[in-house]
Amino acid sequence: MSEPVRPEMLGSCPVPLAHPEQIVLGHGSGGKLTADLIHRFILPAFSNPYLDRLDDQAVVEISGARLAFTTDSFVITPIFFPGGDIGELAINGTVNDLAMSGARPLYLAAALILEEGLAIQDLQRVLDSMRKAAQRANVLLVTGDTKVVNRGKGDQIFITTTGIGVIEHAWNLSADRARAGDKVLLSGSIGDHGMAIMSQREGLEFEGTIESDTAALHGLVAAILAAAGDGVHVLRDPTRGGIGTTLNEIAARSQVGMAIEESTILVRHTVQGACEILGLDPLYVANEGKLLAIVSSEAADAAVEAMHQHELGREARIIGEVVAEHPRMVLMKTGIGGTRIVDTLYGEQLPRIC
Amino acid sequence: MSEPVRPEMLGSCPVPLAHPEQIVLGHGSGGKLTADLIHRFILPAFSNPYLDRLDDQAVVEISGARLAFTTDSFVITPIFFPGGDIGELAINGTVNDLAMSGARPLYLAAALILEEGLAIQDLQRVLDSMRKAAQRANVLLVTGDTKVVNRGKGDQIFITTTGIGVIEHAWNLSADRARAGDKVLLSGSIGDHGMAIMSQREGLEFEGTIESDTAALHGLVAAILAAAGDGVHVLRDPTRGGIGTTLNEIAARSQVGMAIEESTILVRHTVQGACEILGLDPLYVANEGKLLAIVSSEAADAAVEAMHQHELGREARIIGEVVAEHPRMVLMKTGIGGTRIVDTLYGEQLPRIC
Question: What is the pLDDT of residues A13-47, one digit of tens each?
């Protein structure tokens, strides 16, 4: 049984609930409309045990090797933003989707769709970022493709990266493995990526620039797994739709409830300010260098400790726990002592954020 | 030493030779401008032994498994055309790039970039074609991504498919393995795909509709390998840039010459007619269901025989041979007894053909 969607539950404006006849921006939000598209059209067409898991990567076995396989298109605008650019994002995003299965990322494929008129200089800058990000993440870009579309039929550059990683442990990390009693861990502050993009688009000026948190998380994942082993049940990077949407997905897949504490969730001062000005809820704003981990209560402290030793997990915290009550529902105890339903975002807060 | 480019050598109009400051449609042609982009920007950034082979797929080894890995973006316009649509093309194209390494295609990832306003009905039709093509090719679509871009920032639908296949033989098929004395085999008629698209775009009417030849070639490849084994040196599907460009790429990579006979190259009557009307050379027109095989002279007849037994190779022929003379150059004996240089296409005959 799923809750009826009431606009006041959502972090964004009310949107029509009927199935549209056309694709709307909200279909790319990562929220309810995206899920609707996937469940109505994609899964019925291609249903198989790998795809149906709906994790951020497929895990397949070939000739005895256990591999993670994932793909993502990056269509972010603007292509250059404080803290990164589309090239860096395209490498880190796919590395992270591999890492969330506990895989060691190995090889990437990159397909570029260039718009006629793109400055060669901008292309070079993007490729240079990709090169540096791939080096940092220790992955090799081994194959690719380049297409060009007419002016006005693309938007400078779209990049699709696809990754292969090898899973060298026997554990199974998947969104359906959260169990009542598990702790919910968050690796750092939320909303940085989304608000960096949004502030640039809206021309907002703050005391300090908000920078995207784009980063490759495979090292942090390795540290968590080394410390907490099979106590780690789920790993997810809360990108489109933010931690609000990701927690709901895990709750739905595992048929559990989530109880989180607002006071434990770190939002930088400037991000909070930008969200207030723009009327956005940081729970639904995209991150590109953070992860959520669902870890058994026994292993949770060791996992947090390991995260604190890693530069990308210095501010890691336990933000709540998995509960048997209110299955498929995420409840948040607010700063002023109330309880709020954190529903999945319906449509689009921030279009083209990745 | 490469030949100077003279416009009269080319199948298309003269184009400027200077390096442009901006991306032009020709950068997506699969011809000289694409090669220039790859050699000036992509290879210097990412050079590694896998990528540097410049085959249509990378061959990597993971935990003892030998895998082929390839990616392609499909940006064809119109998205529906006689003989197929963008969905079918996106499956077959990536299956074929895997097959050209002799791999058995196993798993696909699909990333969709949808333009706001795309009719849901059109999306369904494309997904349905993808489903049927994947079933026919016996591959599983195991992971994916969906993004939406604003109206006017895309063109209905772009599809990037990435494939993994397993190589279960020990032979090494690569564009650098052509040797003097090898025979050049072509599996059927040329130009069908490109002229199907072009005729539809230009609104040309013929007695018979020209249909795209889009097809998955892995079965034909298996038949060739079973018959000719390690006598098979190179396999390539001549897509963008046609057989003219593909033969030049092989000649350049293997440092050999090619001598082909125009009279042996099959061009359907309607395709020939459409090419004449539009001033296009069928040698440079894209195919989506044909392959070129470079096979040792000893094994060539067995390979042709095996192709004739397969429905996609009924019209296979030997169209020429690899020679030690004129390295890196493809010469064609024409129907009227002359000899013509078949150079690489410089820019763009047919933009957005796949």
Answer: 444 445 679 999 989 888 888 889 999 999 999 99
Q: Is A191 helix (H, G, I), strand (E, B) or coil?
A: coil
Q: Is A127 on the interface with B (CB under 8 A)?
A: yes
Do A60 and A145 reside in the same domain of the chain?
yes
- A349 domain residue, yes or no: no
**pLDDT of B16 strictly over 60:** no
Question: Is there a contact between B147 and A46 if contact means CB atoms under 8 Å apart?
Answer: no
Query: Which residues, other chains included, contact B47 with Cβ-Cβ below 8 Å and sequence gap of 6+?
Result: none
Task: Point out the residue among B37, B50, B116 whose CB comes nearest to the CB of A25.
Answer: B116
A8 in contact with chain B, both atoms CB, cutoff 8 A = no
Which of A167, A192, A211 terminates a domain? The answer is: A167
Find the domain containing A101 and state its range. Answer: 55-167
Residues A328 and A190 in one domain: yes
Q: Are A72 and B112 in contact (CB under 8 A)?
A: no
Contact B308, B300 (CB under 8 A): no
Label residues A21-38 b or e (16+ Cβ within 10 Å = b): ebbbbbbbbbbbbbbebb
Give the Cα separation of B352 and B350 in Å (integer). 7
Locate B181 and state its tokens.
């004395």
Q: Is A242 in CB contact (< 8 Å) with chain B?
A: no
Sequence letter at residue B172 = N
Q: Let me know if residue A37 belongs to a domain.
A: no
User: Are B143 and A110 a contacting pair at CB < 8 A?
Assistant: no
Q: Residue B311: which region, alpha, beta or left (left: phi > 0; alpha: psi -120 to 50)?
A: alpha
